[in-house]
């Protein structure tokens, strides 16, 4: 047991972000954490709680009030499996500590148990909060007592165990009995393929979402049409037991829930004794053969180019050649129209190009305001969502020393990374937005102005993201996914983006509606605000951003 605790502490420390190095960085991280709490975490959790509360209130007269929270918990478990499989594969088989662990006199179940606990701890902190918000939303609607709420806290902490056990068992079966996945490159490519399949499935389901009617759905549940819950209950049997435990205060259900979780863990550890070493021994992190070239031929092929251009191409090649970076940092810039279209279809809002064209040609103020605020909001969110800037320094990892010792000024490297963070989201936004503008026959001056607002919005988020990442970059990581998923800087950057977009869009809307200012004044005001935000960010970068890099210790 002592070995288990020691290993677990070591694994958790190895995949967690390092603490700030000085008091100044601690204060800045604390400020960013508070900002993220109020701009991202609280709104999301409150929203989830409200949804569960409304579902419970709607279903309560039909006597099936628990189905709302069951549905949400099943969805959470399903997403835990989808996002957890890659994490478990990387933690169990492709982490850099494997070669050091194998010579030690450790049993396979000890290593598997410690790695499972570390992955469970680091990957599910947000999920704990979401499950708690579901419970609070349900308890307030169903009017449960304090004792039952306290019982629910057991499930809040332990709900991810069963989904992650599925991921662990699946990974050990694949690695133990097949030679299909023998490098992290393959699993990263598989995850990219899975992402695109999920996008295709989402697009295919838009028509179904458009025709969905909540009254019809509630009536179907009340009449006993609960096939989806029966199927999901077989896949995740912990969810019905969990709900029964805190809703009915059932002690047998509580014991059954705890035993079920223990049984899943026991099966996972039992299989690890036979399969873990079988899959991990002889495993290499990459099976690509290194090509050796003659030094003279290599030098002959080299061409001297501009320093800035060379550094820029280095960044682009890393992003395109690494599947995880390509999916999460590049491809996401071009997927946003799907989700915008889905939201419009779900709300049963028919998009008519001729109608929009007619409104814009008539200089309808509402449609101009919609495009004006919309381009700023979309640009800001896309720029923050892609993690290009908020992980720009963290992506260097153990090669951070390269930034320190090459004869290139920090500010030049900073600008190259910022340009990458501006280039791809700007292309991703305007490759769709500009054709729409031409379809609506907008004046060329309007299109140029919209593009300028988009550029300024993305530039502000790009420089802000890099500055946040420079405060405390995550330089110690075993795989590229850890550099993205376990980096709080992305969360902080997203919080600032959401806060900034909310102030601009909501503030601009209410300012226009409650005053007599013209739409032209709103255009000028937005341009001034975005220009000032970029100027302030640039001054902060010159003042302390470069100093953060100079003071940053190597990984």
How would you summarize this macromolecular structure in one to three sentences?
This protein has 555 residues and is an all-alpha fold.
What would you note in describing this structure?
- This protein has 555 residues and is an all-alpha fold.
- Helices cover 78% and strands 0% of the residues.
- It is globular and about 70 Å long.
- It starts with a helix and ends with a helix.
Q: What are its keywords?
A:
about 550 residues; mainly alpha
Helix percentage range:
over 70%
Largest sheet: none
Helix/strand-derived class?
A: mainly alpha
Beta-strand residue percentage: under 5%
Topology, pairings included?
Layout lengths: L1 H14 L7 H37 L7 H27 L4 H4 L6 H16 L1 H18 L3 H13 L2 H17 L6 H21 L1 H5 L3 H9 L4 H9 L2 H11 L2 H30 L14 H7 L5 H15 L1 H8 L5 H11 L6 H9 L3 H21 L14 H6 L4 H30 L4 H28 L8 H6 L2 H27 L4 H33 L4
Helix pairs in contact: 1-5, 2-3, 2-6, 2-25, 3-5, 3-6, 3-8, 5-14, 6-7, 7-13, 8-14, 13-14, 16-17, 16-22, 20-22, 20-23, 20-25, 22-23, 23-25, 23-26
């Amino acid at each position: 047991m002592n070995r288990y605790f020691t290993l677990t502490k070591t694994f958790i420390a190895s995949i967690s972000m390092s603490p700030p190095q000085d008091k100044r960085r601690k204060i800045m991280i604390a400020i960013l954490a508070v900002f993220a709490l109020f701009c991202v975490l609280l709104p999301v959790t409150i929203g989830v709680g409200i949804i569960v509360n409304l579902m419970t209130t709607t279903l309560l007269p039909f006597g099936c009030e628990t189905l709302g929270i069951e549905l949400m918990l099943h969805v959470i478990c399903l997403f835990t499996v989808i996002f957890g499989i890659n994490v478990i594969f990387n933690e169990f088989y492709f982490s850099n500590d494997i070669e050091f662990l194998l010579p030690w006199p450790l049993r396979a179940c000890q290593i598997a148990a410690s790695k499972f606990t570390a992955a469970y701890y680091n990957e599910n902190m947000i999920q704990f909060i979401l499950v708690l918000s579901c419970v609070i939303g349900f308890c307030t609607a169903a009017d449960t007592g304090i004792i039952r709420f306290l019982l629910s806290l057991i499930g809040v902490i332990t709900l991810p165990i069963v989904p992650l056990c599925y991921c662990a068992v699946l990974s050990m079966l694949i690695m133990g009995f097949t030679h299909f996945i023998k490098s992290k490159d393959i699993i990263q490519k598989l995850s990219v393929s899975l992402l695109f399949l999920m996008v295709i499935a989402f697009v295919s389901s838009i028509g179904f979402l458009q025709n969905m009617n909540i009254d019809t759905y509630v009536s179907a549940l009340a009449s006993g049409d609960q096939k989806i819950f029966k199927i999901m209950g077989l896949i995740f049997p912990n969810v019905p037991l969990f709900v029964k435990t805190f809703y009915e205060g059932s002690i047998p259900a509580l014991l059954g829930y705890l035993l079920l979780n223990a049984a899943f863990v026991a099966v996972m550890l039992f299989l690890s004794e036979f399969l873990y070493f079988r899959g991990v021994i002889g495993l290499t992190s990459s099976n690509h053969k290194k090509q050796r070239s003659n030094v003279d031929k290599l030098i002959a092929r080299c061409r001297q180019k501009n320093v800035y251009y060379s550094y820029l191409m280095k960044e682009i090649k890393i992003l395109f050649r690494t599947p995880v970076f390509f999916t999460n940092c590049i491809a996401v810039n071009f997927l946003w129209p799907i989700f915008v279209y889905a939201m419009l279809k779900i709300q049963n809002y028919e998009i008519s190009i001729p109608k929009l064209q007619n409104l814009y040609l008539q200089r309808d103020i509402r449609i101009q305001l919609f495009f004006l605020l919309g381009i700023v909001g979309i640009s800001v969110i896309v720029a923050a969502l892609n993690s290009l800037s908020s992980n720009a320094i963290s992506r260097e990892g153990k090669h951070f020393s390269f930034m320190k010792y090459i004869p290139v000024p920090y500010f030049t490297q900073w600008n190259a990374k910022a340009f990458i963070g501006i280039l791809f989201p700007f292309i991703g936004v305007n490759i769709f937005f500009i054709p729409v503008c031409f379809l609506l026959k907008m004046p060329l001056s309007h299109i140029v102005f919209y593009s300028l607002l988009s550029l300024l919005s993305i530039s502000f988020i790009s420089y802000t993201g890099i500055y946040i990442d420079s405060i405390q970059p995550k330089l110690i990581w075993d795989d590229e996914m850890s550099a993205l998923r376990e980096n709080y800087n992305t969360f902080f950057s997203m919080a600032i983006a959401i806060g900034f977009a909310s102030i601009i869009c909501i503030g601009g809307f209410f300012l226009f509606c409650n005053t007599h200012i013209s739409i032209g004044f709103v255009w000028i005001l937005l341009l001034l605000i975005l220009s000032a935000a970029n100027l302030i960010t640039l001054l902060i970068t010159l003042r302390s951003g470069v100093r953060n890099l100079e003071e940053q210790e190597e990984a």
